[in-house]
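so my prof wants the structure for this chain in the tokens format not the other one, which i didnt know existed until like an hour ago. anyway here's the sequence
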Amino acid sequence: MIVEKELLGLSDVAKLCGTSNSNISNWRSRDSKFPTPYTNTSAGPIWKAEDIVTYLQKKFKDEYDVISTGKISSKRMAIIGRARGGKSFLISRFVFDRNGYVNLFCGNNSDKTACPIYIKISEYVTLESFVFHTDFNSMYKVEDEKEDEELKNLKDRISALVNHPYLQEDVQKMIEIEGVIREIRSIEERYPNRKNSNTYIDTFQRPGEFCKELLRECGIGSFEIVDTPGVSGNVEAAKIAKSDIYLFLVKPDNGDESQTLRKIVTQIKADVATSKVAFLYKKEGIFLTNKKYEEARVAVRKDMEAYSELFKDLKGNIISTELDVLDPANHCIIFPTMDQDEIILPEELFLEEMKEKLLEAFKPENESSKDEEFEKMISELGVQSKTFALDIMRNIPTHEFGKGENEYSLDQVIAGQHDRVMTKDNYRFHNDLDKAYSKESSILDNYFSTFTAAEYPEEWQQIIIKYIYRKLIISVRADRGLGVGTHPWEERPARTMLIEESILADKVLVNILGKDKVFRNEAYRKALRDSNITSATWNYVGCIDNEEAVTKLKIVKECLSDVEVSSRQEMVLCRYVGGLRKIAQYKILEKMGYKENECMKELKSLPF
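here's what i got, hopefully its the right format
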């Protein structure tokens, strides 16, 4: 059982314990080990969820398998722009220890960011730290010690640095890591035919006041910022994929800026279709009055109109009409000069605009109006609209599975000795997912981009096209499933474990179905362990009570488990990403009036 609340009232505790409010009151008076309330209100006592869970685990031992996660939902923001554009300085405005962050990550007008940096901000963080990750050592083998002495020395230095937490004040260690990263990049340039390593830095930060308000207002537990290396039009889409909002830092003083922006937008367009976007336009000067700031805003929007012309040829289809990323002038924010030590008026006004945009991106979007509009079209037009919607889904191009020389089977997954944690698994499933998601998002974007208003002029047709595209792309971007990993340093969501869960759908379903939800955690863990999935942190793993996640596994079992694949990456694409697409199609069919058995039958006929 999973407890996702941070604080519990008396009735919450009673429900969690499967007893009455009066029994809980008796426990409090008779059991000296019962937790002391975190606070008392006029409505009654309030306990920390983790205190109650710890008590239950001790009281009932093996009889009660419960994990407290607190607020497990997380949101993500990617920042894209050229070097020396103020990205790291901007990020420092979100964290508690501004100066510490600036000292560690700001380049002071030099290209400091040597690899992607993932800034993980949460109130659960107690001390700022950073961790260096890379799978370079598993990819590059030393074959000739004489010729590869340099490579051997580099691998030894990497081993000494990788996957170790360092405190934020250890600037010297960061300098050492940056030097190693540059050597990694140098080696990779010598072998252009090899794939590059997955090299990045995680840093764990307490939130500053601005970010703390944002977390609480949105009801989320953590916030991740992706800081990309300074770019010249080359963005690794996988590094920033699935972000809830993308910030493009734009400077007016570079003649190549517009073409650079166009290259970036073209590369990631498939991923940002359902995300919010803001263009931060760097404006030099001090705007110490509201009037001056407003004048600067107007000037910036006028300047950004020129950028909108860049994307004319990308707007010629139905799904592009509502994309933020293709409308810079209406989604730009002035990025003013900021003071190192204190917040001045321009920064206050900038943060107000940023907060509005972030709330728009992070708060759950109400899909009910779109659902109602779609259902209305289906109801009013009947067979015509149903046939049209089904034809759209039936004609999505298929992924080419099983074209390789050998078949890749479930037995090979089991023999692969995978770990449930991304780093311990040497990023194998994680890297496979990056490529699988890229293929799926490209197929969907390329296919739906062929629908034009000239060919489909009717309003009802365009509503259905947009609705289906939106539902599919939102679903395949949202990594989710039954499993939850709660270790403070592991990836959230636990993508590697979610992939394993989906590949092992049949085994997971056999283990958990019919079990009381109180006992599903261990049943879930056993399904993975029995399939040779290892972990040093099984006690941090839980299984949520979520009907959609169970349905998704049933769909994988019924529709995808018999598809022949030729590689592990194809297995991930088929059973995990395929499951994410098909659960969206299942829900679309439900909106069209299909019953459960009819949905499953129709899903089997839809290609993937």
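also thought this was worth mentioning. Residues 568-591 form the longest helix (24 residues).
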